[in-house]
């Protein structure tokens, strides 16, 4: 039996090969309560809740990641390398950065650009492009189409800065075609690639940066059902 880490203490409870990973641990609890059967909790360290259950007969786990690349970097590294998880599907919210993307649209992150220095640890002699798993991406797009979701597939930005002092920051990324901004996927994709595992980010647009539109915190926690169902279908 795998021993726990300082951040994940399953105490004998199994963690599935596929883990859905929202940033908010309360969203993890929502998914477990509303979508999974035969649920058992495998982590409560630092209130970063993790649960294992079944969805349509498939074993799946769900766990919060916290905010930012340093946080998801820790949890995803341990899940991949200590607990032998094969696939992590990030489900989260993002801010739209293109005019044709609207509130509640689904963004599937083919790639994750970043202003983070997380990649520096690998000493790569150039600029590495963190990419999601292609097979997962294709399956996610198919599942989204079957649900009738409005989807966009492409590049997101995993930003280390929520409040940026540079007033041109968003404009520059907008010009480069970035669909939306979030804060975790690049770190997840790098950990997955280095470990030889799979990862994908699926997002609901919670606000529109160019149009100053936003959903409420309660809506972000409880109403992003299409994103959750897409992730569960491909788990």
Please sum up the structure shown:
With 235 residues, the protein is of the alpha/beta class.
Strands, count: 10
What is the CATH H-level superfamily? Answer: Nucleoside phosphorylase domain
Q: How much strand content do the residues show?
A: 25-35%
CATH-defined architecture: 3-Layer(aba) Sandwich
The chain-level mean pLDDT equals 96
Radius of gyration: 17 Å
Helix-residue proportion: 25-40%
Number of helix segments?
Answer: 7
Distance between the amino and carboxyl termini = 24 Å
Task: Say what the CATH topology is.
Answer: Rossmann fold
What overall form do the CA principal axes indicate?
A: globular
Active site: 207 (proton donor)
Binding site for phosphate: 23, 27, 46, 90-93
Subunit structure: Homohexamer; trimer of homodimers.
Family: Belongs to the PNP/UDP phosphorylase family.
Describe this structure in words.
- The structure is a single chain.
- The protein has 235 residues and is an alpha/beta fold.
- The protein has one domain: 3-Layer(aba) Sandwich (Rossmann fold).
- Helices cover 31% and strands 28% of the residues.
- It contains 7 helices and 10 strands.
- The chain has a 5-stranded mixed barrel with strand order 5-8-7-6-9, surrounded by 4 helices.
- α2 runs parallel beside α5 and α3 packs across α7.
- It is globular, with a radius of gyration of 17 Å.
- Homohexamer; trimer of homodimers.
- One of its GO terms (cellular component) is cytosol.
- One of its GO terms (molecular function) is uridine phosphorylase activity.
- It comes from Staphylococcus carnosus.
- It catalyses: a purine D-ribonucleoside + phosphate = a purine nucleobase + alpha-D-ribose 1-phosphate; a purine 2'-deoxy-D-ribonucleoside + phosphate = a purine nucleobase + 2-deoxy-alpha-D-ribose 1-phosphate; uridine + phosphate = alpha-D-ribose 1-phosphate + uracil.
């Amino acid at each position: 039996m795998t021993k726990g880490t300082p951040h994940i203490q399953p105490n004998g409870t199994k963690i599935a090969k596929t883990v859905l990973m929202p940033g908010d641990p309360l969203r993890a609890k929502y998914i477990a309560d509303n979508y999974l059967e035969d649920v058992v909790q495998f982590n409560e360290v630092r209130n970063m809740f993790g649960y294992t259950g079944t969805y349509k007969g498939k074993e799946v786990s769900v766990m919060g990641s916290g905010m930012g690349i340093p946080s998801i970097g820790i949890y995803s590294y341990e899940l991949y390398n200590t607990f032998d998880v094969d696939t992590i599907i990030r489900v989260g919210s993002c801010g739209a950065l293109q005019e044709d993307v609207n509130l509640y649209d689904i963004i599937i992150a083919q790639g994750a650009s970043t202003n983070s220095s997380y990649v520096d640890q690998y000493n790569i002699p150039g600029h590495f492009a963190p990419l999601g798993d292609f097979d997962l991406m294709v399956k996610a797009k198919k599942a989204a189409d079957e649900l009738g979701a409005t989807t966009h597939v492409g590049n997101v930005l995993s930003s280390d800065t929520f409040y940026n002092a540079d007033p041109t920051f968003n404009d520059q990324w907008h010009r480069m075609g970035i669909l939306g901004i979030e804060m975790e996927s690049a770190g997840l994709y790098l950990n997955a690639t280095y470990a030889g595992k799979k990862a994908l980010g699926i997002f609901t647009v919670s606000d529109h940066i160019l149009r100053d539109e936003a959903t409420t915190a309660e809506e972000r926690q409880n109403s992003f059902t299409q994103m959750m169902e897409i992730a569960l279908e491909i788990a």
